[in-house]
Model the fold of this input.
Amino acid sequence: MTEPDPAEAVLAGLDPEQRAAALAVRGPVCILAGAGTGKTRAITHRIAYAVRSGAVPPTQLLAVTFTARAAGELRTRLRKLGAHGVQARTFHAAALRQLTYFAPRVLGGGMPEVVDRPLRLVGNAAARLRLRTDRVELRDLAAEIDWAKAVLVTPDDYAARARAAGRETSTTPDTVAKVYAEYEQTKQRAGQLDFSDLLLVMAGAIEEYPDVAEEIRARYRHFVVDEYQDVSPLQQRMLDAWLGGREDVCVVGDANQTIYSFAGATPEHLLGFPRRYPEAVVVRLERDYRSTPQVVELANKLVRGNSDGAKLTLIGQRADGPAPAFAEHDDEPAEAVSVAAQCRVFIDAGTPAAEIAVLFRINAQSEVYEQALADAGVAYVLRGGERFFDRPEIREARLLLRGAARAGADSDDGAKLPDAVRSVLSSLNWHAEHPPPGGTARERWESLSALVTLADDLIATMPEAQLPELVGELDARAGAQHAPTVQGVTLASLHSAKGLEWDVVFLVGLTDTTVPIQHATTEAQIAEERRLLYVGITRARERVALSWALARSPGQRRARRPSRFLDGLRPHATRDAAPKPGKKKGPAPEAADAELFGRLRAWRKAQADAQGSPPYIVFSDATLVAIADARPPSRAALARISGVGPMKLERYAEPLLAVLGGADPHSVDPVATP
Ligand code: ATP
Ligand code: MG
Done:
């Protein structure tokens, strides 16, 4: 046999349709497919294949997506595939970086200040117009300005366009238009830019300055856009400016996951792509690799409720898992306490905290969960650790690491990177032992620990890495706002969860005034809320738990209704249907079985590593739980467990029975892949 082709190897993990997309290294390519079908996987493998086969120089490729976390996810996956040097950013981060470079040429000076909280600016503009506004109205005005800029509407055109689009505003469209105009002027006078301006100015620069256009188009020749269903006209204009009529673009998306149309996004660009590029390779994917059939079925049912959502039905590929759980609670604190207790059980049974998420509709819902998780002794990460690099302990740590990297350059005492990092962090009072959960000490400890983990990860992909490489990695991540994984249960809004996945997902606060949100009144707005819940459900690999509370606080009248979207999805009596954590249904075994479950997982990990596949390919958590529960004494008994088919039995019966018989999972030899 000849040596395996390093580029071909990247294609091995793709199904035929994904492979077709990956092989079309030169665009245009369009992947239209549902949640969890491997769109992001297809594009990351496509990029890696293009780069590793030499078809595309990595520095000429720009991959864009919509949230900082999703961009981080892209980067992580690309790194694992050995596609180094490819940029994966949000539209805004990419535009910011380019504009910073071109500012002297197109703005005649340094990079202007970017206002990240435009609310104050909007408030000033309203005040100058002698408008009396409360906070809600201000937010509404800011949202309208944001929408107008995203759909490329100027203050002069705002009123007419807002009426035509049926925008519901708290003041008249003419008043909004005046505030918008005043806002733009104040901002300009102060020499500031808002986030939308980054794209407007950069796109404008490419359109107006031939030398800028030429330089940027020479630099970037290949474009990939993930989550393309949520592209706004402004972002599309940016993309068109980058492309300059060239066709090397690959877009992927799922119209059923459009959740930013309130902010001007539209799936029309995605759906119209094959028409715009008749030559495009168009790929549709239906197999859902992420979630169990139970999760997939729930998602399918939910999406069928939208008149335009029935076209795509997902087909679950994974082994069976637990049924979705529905739970009704008296009040929000009770709901939060229950969720926190379940998190505790899952973690104790071996699910890493970072594989659990609690997702809510609005950020204000987070607080009661922070409290409950802290009380239950469960570490958590708020909104996925965005702004990680702004934390004081991380700033300090980076300074110290940088200093140590410089000093170490000539000393060369040969210390391994993780040890070097631990020793630097110990001067910030960090110890391997963690303080009790809750409170700032623990938060500080968790974020510093994330740096240690990052060092461990770096060594895994780059064994000779030293402090300077880690410092470089941190700089790159800080530039892209790509926080390293902090161990803890993720608390995040449904909007910020797009593109991500966890083993266990709690969808909380599902009352009828929260999902759909109270101010969603039109059919289109309600449909968007339903898609938001669809996004939430499809984040779960193994288990999804949906819950709501009948009152906000203890003792209040229990007047709320569960979300109308759950009608027809949830069983009638949901009050007691909440799974008691630790019952046989789900991947949380009884405490007595937890030890065996832990050993089975350890064996599965070793086996998965040996055959180079993700662990769930060997067995799902649900199957391992079933095995731990049943403790089958023989091959025949093992065969009766759901999830252990004839092929798996053939392959894994021997090592499994050994582990069941008490063998150390690490001393059991992995079986060879066929
Ligand atoms: P979303 O719409 O939520 O963004 P997606 O279509 O981008 O989802 P991915 O995140 O790429 O889906 O894939 C979902 C999960 O399924 C990932 O864990 C991925 O590794 C896995 N997966 C995708 N394709 C395959 C495949 N061909 N074989 C095995 N696993 C796969
Ligand atoms: Mg994706």
Observations:
- The chain has five domains: 6-97+202-285, 113-190, 325-386+488-576, 388-480, 591-660.
